[in-house]
Every structure is written in C-alpha cells, then in structure tokens.
Amino acid sequence: MTTHGPLLVGTLSAEPGGKTRGTLPADLGTLTADIPLTLVNGTHPGPRVLITAGVHGGEFSGIDAATRLAALLEPDEVHGQVVICPVANPPAVYQGRLGVSPVDGVNINRVFPGDPEGGPTERLAAWLFSHLVDGADAYVDLHSGGIDEVLKNFVGYRLTGDPDLDAKTADMAGALGIEDVILGMNADGGNSHAAAARRGVPAILVETGQLGERDTDTARRLVDGLYGVLGRLGVLETKPQDDTAVRAWVWAAGVVSEATGLWYPEFGAGDDVTEGQLLGRVIDPVDGTEHKVHAPAAGRVFYGMRGLTVAPGAELAAIAAPAPRDPGH
After folding, report:
1. Residue 136: what are its φ and ψ, rounded to 5°?
2. Cα–Cα separations (whole angstroms), residue 264 to 267, 273, 309
3. What is the pLDDT of residues 225-265, one digit of tens each?
4. Are the beta carbons of 136 and 235 closer than 8 angstroms?
5. What is the DSSP letter of 292?
6. What average pLDDT does range 2-18 have in this prediction?
7. Residue 329's pLDDT band (boundaries 50, 70, 90)?
8. Backbone phi, then psi, for 202, in 5-degree steps?
9. Closest to 142 measured CA to CA, from 264, 83, 59, 81
10. Which string of b and e fits 269-280 if b means at least 16 CB within 10 Å?
C-alpha cells in the first residue's frame, strides 16, 4: 500500500512532511497506560512501517535503538510513513522488568492479537493491534535477552504458506545484517509477529543484546540494521547493502525446569549441543538434591537462563537446528 495523506494514530497526527512525538492513552480496564509514539510522515509516498520495542521488560537494546531511530528519522528523507513505539508495554518495562506484566502476570507476547474485553494485558495487545499493526504494511518487533537471559542475536519470522508474504518477510529479515534467521513453520500462537503474519502483514522479530545490558554499540548496530530494512522496503534512499549470508534455522526444542531450586548452567549462548548432553543442574537449596537437565535435541542454543533461582516451568534454554533446504514445502 502506498500512503501519502495525513498519518493518524488515535488523536496523534502528522501531515506529509511532518513529524509528531507524543503519547496515547490505552484503556486497560483497571488502569490506563500511556503509549509513546513517534510518527514520521514522509514528503514522498510509500509504505507504512511499524517498529515496536519494549513489549517485554528488561529488554533494553531494542528500546534504546527505537528511541535513537525516532530521533534520527526526518520526513524529508522518508518515502511513506514510519510509526515508532519504543515502549509498547509500559507496565512491564517501567515496573516489572520481566517478560510478564506486574499488572496481571501475563506475557503479552503470548496473547496477540489480544482481546479488547479481556484482562489488562490482553486489552493492551488489542490496542496495539488496532492502533498500530492493522494499518502497517510491514512490522519490526525489537526484543533482547532479558535481565537473566543470555542470547545469540537472531531474526525470527513465521512461514505462512503465502509465497508473496513469505518472500517479503524473508527480504526484510535479510536486510538487518544479522546472520542467523530462525523460521517458524507456521503462524500459530500469540507472538506479535505471528499474529501480524496471520493478518497478511510481513513481520519480523529481532533479538539483539542480552542480560539486560545497556550497550551503546549494540543499539547503534541495531539502528544500522533498521536503516537497512527501511532501505530495503523503499522507505529510505539508503544505498542498498549486500545481504548478510544468512543461516536458516528451525526451533528444535525448548528446555524447562522441572524443579524449584538453584540453576547452574553448563552452556553458553551460541553453543552447539548434542541430544542428551548435560546442560546444567538444578540444586534444591533445602537438601542439596540435584536435578540434571539434558538437551532433548541436537542443535544450537540461541538463548538460555542465567538467573540463579528457577521454578517449575522456567525456560532454561531454547535450541534450534539447521533448517531443511526448502523449509516452505
């Protein structure tokens, strides 16, 4: 879609050639969240691109990069429209610093596209979709390794079976400068990029940084990657960069704790593991009982828990395996 009229989101607006920064109130039932937005309406027609960060608390690289990009982008260089939301989930970002919201204990990235009649986090997801995602021609959701999580940078997207949509999404993923791309074999589930893909919006998940680090170089590299995506989409007249030679992966296994206790991992993010390999131990602080944790599948660990204390169901590691050569079939 080519847009060249006013850019309207709720009560915020930007005319062609204009840039508007402000907040919009999202009614979550039991409270109101102020959602920060930057609207950049280019002087030239083009697509509308949405960039969000701060879907989870404690994931700082994406918030930093989105805020930097919002300050840098100017309408006279933009073809189309760019909507940047650096803190999509203020309760989790400012109060919780974890994947779940302190308001209701819900991980918003499991309930998209949300429910306007549901609990607070479901209502927030629905607000983000109705106000931001549904008007977009492309969507980039920025995440990071949280405060207790090691992570190897990757891009993720879902295969939908729609060849045009999947090709557009792959093109976006290849323009970021991140070499590892993890494919979801369908668009099921409550993740933001999966729910967007189900609505026909090419959408990618970007994971950069770890352990809640506020690392300037990581943020700057991510801004460069976002410039690459905007250039690939025709929003910016940046010199097209050569695609990074991407390696495609598919998720092979998630590892969760079966016990309450103290977690002593024996792997690092990016490590290759074999099926059955010892990944670490959960020690019961009461009596010293040891629960060994083994890899349920071979592959590469892309993120893992570094927090000391874990409860049953805590995600300890996520393992991906090389994708088949033609994963779409």
Report:
1. -90, 150
2. 9, 17, 9
3. 999 999 999 999 986 666 667 899 999 999 999 999 999 99
4. no
5. E
6. 90
7. very low
8. -65, 125
9. 59
10. bebebeeeeebb
Maximum separation of any 2 CA atoms in the chain, in Å: 67
Are residues 173 and 226 in contact, defined by beta-carbon separation less than 8 angstroms?
A: no
Residue 281: exposure state from Cβ atoms within 10 A (0-12, 13-18, ≥19): middle
Q: Residue 186's CB: how many other CB atoms inside 10 A?
A: 12
Separation of alpha carbons 180 and 226, rounded Å: 16
**How far apart are the C-alpha atoms of 160 and 168, rounded to whole Å?**
11
Q: How many CB atoms within 10 Å of residue 325?
A: 7
Residue 229: burial class (beta carbons within 10 Å; 0-12, 13-18, 19+): buried
Amino acid 21 reads R
By three-state DSSP, how is residue 137 classified?
Answer: coil
Listed residue (210, 164, 238, 189) closest to 62, CA to CA: 210
What the block records as the tokens of 138 is 């492309």
- CA distances to 162, 248, 271, 275, 299 from 280, rounded to whole Å, are 40, 27, 13, 14, 16
228 CB-near residues (< 8 Å, 6+ apart): 175, 176, 177, 238, 241
Alpha-carbon distance of 319 to 298, in angstroms, equals: 8
Gap between the Cα atoms of 218 and 60, Å rounded: 10
Q: In which band, very low, low, confident or very high, does the pLDDT at 31 lie, cut at 50, 70 and 90?
A: very high
Contact between 197 and 160 (Cβ < 8 Å): yes
Residue type, 153: N
Distance CA 149, CA 303 (A): 7
